[in-house]
């Protein structure tokens, strides 16, 4: 009803649909068009999540390993049926399951204990578009049954894998990987793709040198566990992002990351990315973990044929196992890549890396806790670029609550980043002075 002499008030939704301002002009719609707009808005309000659900990333909601008489069963709970590709590897025995890229909505953070013939399992993003589950096998097995169960009760699809023990002679290694590491078209990349040639025409010291920051671990390789619950792969990525911001903000350098997200990268691929990009300096960021939770402080490592001490040797052995943990068949590595020996690395790059480490340690010490004899040496695979000065920075110990809190805080990440920048400044300042540029 309207008052005498007044205008009839329309519904606010209809009033809003009558006028849409575009560059100050009023656009009027005919009645049918207005009704269609109202209907569209109403349906959107009633079914806001329908389209998003169909387009959402698949979700793995559970990973269960059960021991049964004569076999071990792995069950993957998922919100939909998933295509899988299976790979069996040896030295050590491993089973690899590749899925389309999924979100792992499970309680465990990248790894879980096993049962039966499964010693442990790891999971995460292997590369964009592919998620991976790796089972460490305690003995040779064969896949005796593989089937899917439709939703019932829980609403989840169940992907079932039954594994039976076999004699070593009966273990069938998948010689041709079903999903290749780096090949986008399913073929193994050539050595030239792994270790591309450096750009030929490069100034000796660029006006703005390129710093490559390498966040250690990622994807199904979580790295060291954290005393406060955050695994190494997230810590290294967060610090690398802050370091890139601080380094680039100086205006004196360019900075890039080898990985931008929680994805697995083979060790030699990290080297290849930096070399292909024309890196002038390579800094791999890590955080260690020890049984002795009182040990804390940062350490800087450079490449050497012989480890400086037993702890350095053990650390290098752990870090160099990253590719095995991620389910790579190292036995099929191209010999041109697998045989990158320390003796072939350019002495100039190694000497420069050692010099940078000596300059970096005191700058870090001004800002964070640093261990005694903080410049150490070992045979880290990720430091074997033959023509890029490379260091590995263990920023602290995630097994120590104080170090873990420092690396997990915004202020701590800022201090590490500022220490890196100060060390980089000293390094290139001395390099320019020595070259007369």
For the biggest sheet, the summary is: 6 strands, mixed
Shape: elongated
In helices, the fraction of residues equals 25-40%
Q: What is the alpha-carbon Rg in Å?
A: 27 Å
Rounded to the nearest angstrom, the distance between the terminal CA atoms is: 86 Å
Major sheet strand order: 14-13-15-18-16-17
Instruction: Give the count of structural domains.
Output: 2
CATH class of the largest domain: Alpha Beta
Strand content: 25-35%
Order of helices and strands: HEEHHEEEEEEEEEEHEHEHEEHHHHEEHH
Count of helical segments? 12
- In round numbers, the mean pLDDT is 79
CATH architecture term of the largest domain? 3-Layer(aba) Sandwich
The total count of strands amounts to 18
> What is the CATH topology descriptor of the largest domain?
Aminopeptidase
Structural class designation: alpha/beta
Detail the poorly predicted runs: 1-5, 10-29, 31-54, 177-202, 333-345
Kindly report the name of the CATH homologous superfamily of the largest domain: Zn-dependent exopeptidases
């Amino acid at each position: 009803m309207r008052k005498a002499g007044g205008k009839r008030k329309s519904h606010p939704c209809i009033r809003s649909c009558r006028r849409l301002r575009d560059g100050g002009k009023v656009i009027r719609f005919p009645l049918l068009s207005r009704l269609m707009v109202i209907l569209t808005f109403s349906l959107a309000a009633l079914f806001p999540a329908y389209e998003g659900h169909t387009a959402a990333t698949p979700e793995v909601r559970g990973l269960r390993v059960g021991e049964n008489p004569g076999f071990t069963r792995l069950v993957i709970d998922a919100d939909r049926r998933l295509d899988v590709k299976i790979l069996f590897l040896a030295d050590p025995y491993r089973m690899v399951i590749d899925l389309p890229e999924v979100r792992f909505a499970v309680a465990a953070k990248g790894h879980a204990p096993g049962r039966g013939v499964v010693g442990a399992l790891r999971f995460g993003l292997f590369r964009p578009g592919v998620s991976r589950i790796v089972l460490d096998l305690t003995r040779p097995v064969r896949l005796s049954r593989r089937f899917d169960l439709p939703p019932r009760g829980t609403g989840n699809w169940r992907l079932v894998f039954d594994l039976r023990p076999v004699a070593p002679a009966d273990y069938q290694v998948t010689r041709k990987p079903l999903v290749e590491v780096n090949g986008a078209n399913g073929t193994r990349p050539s050595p030239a793709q792994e270790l591309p040639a450096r750009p030929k025409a490069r100034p000796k010291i660029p006006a703005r040198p390129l710093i490559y920051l390498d966040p250690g671990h990622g994807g199904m390789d979580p790295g060291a566990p954290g005393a406060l619950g955050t695994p190494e792969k997230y810590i290294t990525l967060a610090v690398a992002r802050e370091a890139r911001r601080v380094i680039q903000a100086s205006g004196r350098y360019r900075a890039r990351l080898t990985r931008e997200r929680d994805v697995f990268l083979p060790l030699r691929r990290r080297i290849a990315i930096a070399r292909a990009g024309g890196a002038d300096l390579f800094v791999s960021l890590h955080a260690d973990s020890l049984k002795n939770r009182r040990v804390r402080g940062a350490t800087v490592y450079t490449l050497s044929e012989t480890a400086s001490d037993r702890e350095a040797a053990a650390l290098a052995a752990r870090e160099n196992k990253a590719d095995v943990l991620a389910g790579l068949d190292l036995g099929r590595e191209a010999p041109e890549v697998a045989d990158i020996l320390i003796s072939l690395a350019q002495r100039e790059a190694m000497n420069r890396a050692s010099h940078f480490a000596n300059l970096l340690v005191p700058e870090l010490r001004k800002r964070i806790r640093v261990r005694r004899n903080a410049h150490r040496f070992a045979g880290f695979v990720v430091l074997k670029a033959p023509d890029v000065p490379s260091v590995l920075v263990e920023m602290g110990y995630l097994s120590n609550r104080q170090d873990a809190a420092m690396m997990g805080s915004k202020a701590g990440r800022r201090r590490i980043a500022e220490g890196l920048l100060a060390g980089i400044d000293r390094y290139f300042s001395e390099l320019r002075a020595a070259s007369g540029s």
